[in-house]
Amino acid sequence: MNRFRVSGPGSFRSGFVCLLAITLSLSLAGCVQESAGVSASTSAPTHMAARPGVSPRGAPVAIMSIEGAPSAVSRSFADKTRSEAASLDVLVTEPREARYVVRGYLSAAPGSEGTVVSYVWDVFDARKARVQRLEDAVAVKGAAGDWSVVDDKALTELAARSAADLAAVLTNMPEAISAARSTPAPAPTASAAPLGSPPPRLETTAALH
Length: 209
Prior knowledge:
By secondary structure, this protein is α+β, with helices and mostly antiparallel strands. The chain has four helices and four strands, in the order αβαβββαα.
């Protein structure tokens, strides 16, 4: 007896509709997962080289949220990142005044020597489109994957890395590049005469007779 079955037109249409429904369901599930928020990542650190001669100050940024860690850790990390960013000439401002916003995620995972604490920054422009993702991590000795071993020193180091990465990204944004081009170059300063050199000779004009 032949095990293969030939489907009629009605069965074909029904099967096609089911397949289309399954495909759409999977697509929507992917969209929901992508828009749910930033997730922890264990991939290699991602960086962007800073653009020479451009200050990140021309692209003001706002820190919108930091998830994944206890609230005290998140607040400390945000404060340290703001302080480190300001030292790199990053203008951290309110969302209504910012050209870019960042959303972050912190995680503490088991590592070979204890705990690996990592950050993820997603940088969004004014149209809410993500323009860059940044991530890096530091290792902390102690209990594996435990937030209690993430001390002030580890958070300071992580915040310094995150601020440096953020500053580098902002130097590549069009607003910062445009601001750098419109800033006039500083006027050259007169060089001082070396010590021990004779004073300049004054020229005198002969009197007319």
